[in-house]
Condensation domain-containing protein
Amino acid sequence: MIAFSGARSGTAPLTWGQRAIWDAIGRTAPDDRYFNFGRVLEVPRGARPASVAHVSRAVGLLVERHEALRTLVAPGPRQDLRDRGAVEVAIAPERDPEAVLAELCGTAFDYEREWPLRVALVTEGSAAGEEVTHIVLAFCHMAADGLGAERVLRDLRLILLRGGLREGPPPQPLDLAQWQGSAAGRRQAAGAAAHWEREHRRIPPTMFHVASGAAERPPIRRALLTSPAADMAAQRLAVRHGASTSTVLLTAVSAMVAELTGHETVAVLPIVGNRFRHDTRAAVTTLSQEGLFVLDVAEEGFADLLARARPAVLRAYRSGYHDPGDRERVVAEASRDRGVPVHPYCCFNDMRFAERAVYRDEAPIKEALDATRIAWPLSQDRLNCRFCVHVNEGGRISLTADTRWLATADMERFLVELERLLVEAALR
């Protein structure tokens, strides 16, 4: 066990980001392990040899520094910050760190009783004694998002090397909840809500509205496209048109959704990091929320579509930092006024941490098509969405969908045609 003693305890409402993921967890349970994720940190060379005691101390300091890592979910739901306790640590001698991570992430968290951080230390023996080589961290999504987890790794690495951190702690979830309830926070929320309200008057009720007639058991499947060609094509398009590769990919996904569903107006919910404010940039918490991206897709070239998508992307990013309560109100009102439930059930999540766009020549893109592969790595019973595209490094684009609304054959066709669209646009 790793004991910790923090500076304060207390309760507060959930932050907007915590509320968003809590709602998603509720709609996905009992398959909510889907939201678990983790990181493996190799002990820095400058901190070796690292004993179990030395690494345990570092993890304890980390949990004391970042209050999200010792916050439970109380009934209400509310944040329940504890000032002291002990995190269980597993010792994994001579194990593969990635296999250990998969085990730690394999079961849902007990949100009211279990600390939102699971820890394992991979060790190897020597004549001098047992040495920690890797630290495996599994996060509950209520405590951190991907960028928050990267901040945890950065701080843990520095604590191992220096014995501590010189700078004070960043803003904490309790502080963030207080700001979001303030007059300034309500102004931010009102601006975002106006965007959701305006667009909900015109978007289709949902993107995938026709039953597939080809449901699988279990119904949720994931198709993974590994396509270096699509990655290079997106980079070539980004440089050519002065856009980010994320905008290029979101635009291409929207065009393909329009082709697949027949909708002329496409609504997509991109996951927005919400780290553009000084009080959120370095915070360890879950800040990511869905924005609302709306694009009218007409018969035109990809370059024209991309030009119209760019301002729509900015509006979507701004709408991502919103009060989920306001969004619930907007959705309920739009559904009542239109006489049909209104929800896109169509998500886009660019999970890469860095933007890389290098102008690619035509020949390598064409040659890379031979390396394209499709795999099916996941199936489960429940998901809070019908269609969700994830983008990862190395040209890995996955589509997780509910086969009751999109058959597996159409999932595969979507990814193949997405690659074709990107490559043809890049080479045109």
